[in-house]
TrEMBL record:
Coiled-coil residue windows: none
Classification lineage: Bacteria, Pseudomonadati, Bacteroidota, Flavobacteriia, Flavobacteriales
Protein name: ABC transporter substrate-binding protein
Highest rank taxon of the organism: Bacteria
Domain Solute-binding protein family 3/N-terminal: 35-366
């Protein structure tokens, strides 16, 4: 019986050949000679397919075009319906890289290699610019919160008026009649002129208990009247102007907010206990906002800026507050050697302010 054995040199050679052939397609790939297969996926403003234009436009496509031109690389595009489909094609080797608004996260880093971020995205709030009007003020006068405040105030006046009447009805029947309705009404009148510091002098307590009640009410009124009046004024002013400037997510508490179904903004809004109205796309959300069926829209900031830049005639605003920040990058197989050249060129474009200019072309210049 003959025993077969492998020389250590042949074993090492075999292992090296396996590694070589596994990575051969990436090592031998030369974009200046070969043609890169570039998967494209995403929507505006990052990937825009214009009628009659065979090449995709948008922030991602233009930045990639600048990189390829700078490196003198050859490439051809292959379109995909979604980013997930393009990434699956990258896994199977159908394409050499993916261009589009692909979020860089730790989960994807297990399967792919990313370039450095070429754009920092986030969630923001879009709202319709409001304006002061008499009608808005009239509506606020009948608002539920204001009616509750007035009701509580009347209850307090009734209690004070009743105490004054009980203390004064026997000693001063000419001022405080024995009939409850008239007597309590007189007590409430005295409480009102005392609180407002008007002091007509037509009514005044003459008993010790009446004066104690009136004096106590004066002190309480001085302390609370300013705060109460300021509170009512702030409710009227803030409620009328709160649609003019929404600064942060906390101001959406109790309001109706539209967002896109399945987007990260859905879970984000639920964390803040905001009433969510999910819709299919941004246009549907804008329709709800214009019809005043929702108070605001929360979605990806670049998409909101792109819409605003293309609909300047619409009276829309976007809050300065940004949430859930995430970077977009170009995607490569883990073994790809192309990322070094791409990252170096991206840095050069950033230093020359080229990436910012491309983004501004589609999103407009933020004030």
């Amino acid at each position: 019986m003959t025993r077969c054995s492998f020389h250590p040199f042949y074993t090492l050679a075999f292992i090296f050949s396996l590694c070589f052939f596994t990575k051969a397609q990436y090592v031998s790939l030369n974009p200046k000679v070969d043609t890169l297969k570039v998967g494209v996926a995403g929507n505006a403003p990052f990937i825009i397919n214009e009628p009659g234009n065979p090449l995709p436009q948008g922030i991602s496509a233009k930045i990639w075009g600048e990189i390829a031109d700078d490196l003198n690389w050859n490439y051809r595009y292959k379109d995909y319906q979604s980013v997930s489909q393009a990434l699956e094609a990258l896994k199977t080797g159908e394409v050499d890289m993916v261009v589009g608004p692909v979020t860089i996260n730790s989960q994807r880093l297990d399967s792919f290699k990313f370039s450095q971020p070429y754009y920092q995205s986030s969630l923001s709030i879009a709202y319709k610019q409001g304006e002061f009007s008499i009608w808005n003020l009239v509506k606020l006068l009948f608002s539920f919160k204001l009616l509750i405040a007035i009701g509580i105030f009347l209850v307090i006046l009734t209690i004070v008026g009743t105490l004054l009447w009980l203390a004064e009805k026997k000693a001063s029947p000419d001022q405080f009649p024995s009939e409850p309705a008239k007597g309590i009404g007189t007590g409430m009148w005295l409480a009102i002129v005392t609180m407002s510091t008007t002091g007509y002098g037509d009514k005044a307590p003459i008993t010790l208990m009446g004066r104690i009640i009136a004096g106590t009410w004066m002190i309480v009124s001085i302390i609370s009247a300013t705060s109460m009046v300021a509170g009512i004024a702030s409710v009227l002013t803030f409620s009328n102007f709160q649609s003019v400037d929404i600064k942060n997510i906390e101001e959406l508490n109790g309001k109706r907010v539209a967002t896109i179904s399945g987007s990260p903004s859905v879970d984000f809004l639920k964390e803040y206990k905001v009433t969510v109205r999910p819709v299919e796309n941004l246009n549907a959300a804008m329709t709800l906002l214009h019809d005043k069926k929702v108070d605001a829209i929360v979605y990806d900031r670049p998409q909101l800026l792109y819409y605003l830049n293309n609909h300047e005639e619409e009276d829309l605003q976007i809050s300065k507050a940004e949430y859930y920040k995430q970077g977009y990058g170009f995607v490569f197989p883990k073994e790809s050697p192309l990322t070094y050249d791409v990252n170096r060129t991206l840095l050069k474009l950033a230093e020359d302010n080229k990436t910012a200019e491309i983004a501004e072309e589609y999103l407009g210049k933020e004030q």
